[in-house]
Amino acid sequence: MSPRSRARTIIRGVGILVVIALLVIFFDLGVFTNLLTSFKSDRDISSVPPKWIFRPVLTHYYNVFKGAGYAFDRYLTNSVIIGLGATALAILITLPAAYSIVRYGGVGNWVLGGTLMLRLMPAISVAIPVFVIFYKLGLVDTRLSIILMHTLFLSPTALLLLMGYIQELPRDLEDAAAVDGASIMQMLWRILLPILRPALAAVAILSFLTSWNEFLFAVILSQRKAITATVGTSFFIQSYAVKWGDMAAGITVSTVPTLVFILLAQRQLIQGMTAGAVKG
Amino acid sequence: MTAPTFRKRLVPKLLLLPLGAWLVCFALIPMIYGVWLSLHNAFIENLSQPSWIGLGNYVYLIKDPAFARALGWSLRFALISVTAQMVVGVAMAWFFNRPIPAKGLWITLLLTPMVVSPALIGTMFRLLFSECVGPIQFLLNPLTKGNPLLGPDLVMLTIIVADSISSTPFVFINIYAALQSVSHELMEAATVDGASAWQRFWRITVPLILPITIVTWLMRILAAFLVFELVFSLTGGGPGNMTQSATIYIYRRAFSRSDFGMANAASVTLGLLLLGPSLLMLRRMVRR
Question: CATH fold of B66-287, please?
Answer without folding.
Answer: MetI-like fold (1.10.3720)
